[in-house]
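Ticket #4471: structure output looks truncated?

Reporter: J.K.
Steps to reproduce: submitted the chain below (232 residues) through the standard prediction queue, then opened the result file.
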Amino acid sequence: MINKISPSIEQALAEIHDGATVMIGGFGGAGQPAELIDGLIAHGAKDLVIVNNNAGNAEIGLAALLKTGRVRKIICSFPRQVDSWVFDELYRSGKIELELVPQGNLAERIRAAGAGIGAFFTPTSYGTELAKGKETREINGRNYVLEYPISADFALIKAETGDRWGNLTYRKTARNFGPIMATAAKATIASVHEIVALGSIDPETVVTPGIFVKHIVKVPRTATGPAGFKAA
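Returned output as attached by the reporter:
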C-alpha cells in the first residue's frame, strides 16, 4: 500500500545529506515551508546549495538557515531586501556564494528541469552582466541567451491539502514555486495543513500529482504574527 505520510518532520527530512541541493518554495512568506526549514536546521546538514526566490527575511525561516553557516551557495532572484541583513553579512564577508537569476528565468529553469528540457533561449538578461560568458543567438531578429535547467536533490514545499499518495492542492498564492519545484527534484517533501482520505480530493483540483512527492507531513496552521510567515 502506498503511504507517503511521514509521522514527523524529522523522519521526512532524514535523507537530506551534506552537500545536497535543496529547493525551498515560497515567495517571501507566502508558501514558505517554515516548519520544514526549521526541521532542516535541526537536522544539521551542511554545505548546502539552496534554490529560492529570495535570500530570507529578518532571522526566521530561510534567513535562520543561512545564519547557521551551513549554506555554501544560494541561487535566487531577490537576495537583498530591507530585512535581508543575514544574507548581506554572509555575502560581504565571502561566506556564501550567490548565483543571481532573474525571476522569470528562475521559474523557467526549474520548470525546464522537471519537463526534461535540455536548455532554452530567452531574451531576458541579454546584454547585461548576467549574460556574460553565456551562449547567445539571434533568432528572428531578436537576441537570446542560452539558459540551463536547475534541478535539485530535494524540494521542500508547502501545500494546503494532501492524501496518502502525495497528491497536493495549494492555497491561493502560496502555490507559487511549489508545483515546479516538485517536478524538478529527486525527492519532494511537502508540509500540509490537512491530510484527507484517498479519493477525497477531486482529481480536477490536484495541482501536484503524488508521483512527484516522496513524503508529506502534517503541520498545524499557525496564526499570523509580526514575523508571520507560517500562516500562508
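Triage note (M.O.): checked the attachment and the full C-alpha cell line is present. The mean pLDDT is 94.
Status: closed, working as intended.
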